[in-house]
Amino acid sequence: MTARFPGVQMSLVTTPVSQLAVCAQCAGTRVTRITMTLTDGSVVDFASCHTCEHKTWTEAGTGLDVSDVLRKAQKVRA
What we know:
By secondary structure, the chain is mostly beta strands. It has a domain at 22-73. 10% of the residues lie in helices and 28% in strands. Strand 3 and strand 4 form a beta hairpin.
């Protein structure tokens, strides 16, 4: 907090509330969401709730099991 902005918490990144990820389990908004491209080229989203610790993997809006994510992330050996 700085003296120039009394009572205002400062952050390097500010996301509007309407754009926050929401946990499917507890509806909390303390969620980390990361989009990544796996080894097989699949684009997936990983979400982890800081409130209830629920974790999800999705691809194009469809839920993925962790075993599917691990299979998609394997390196193909020649």
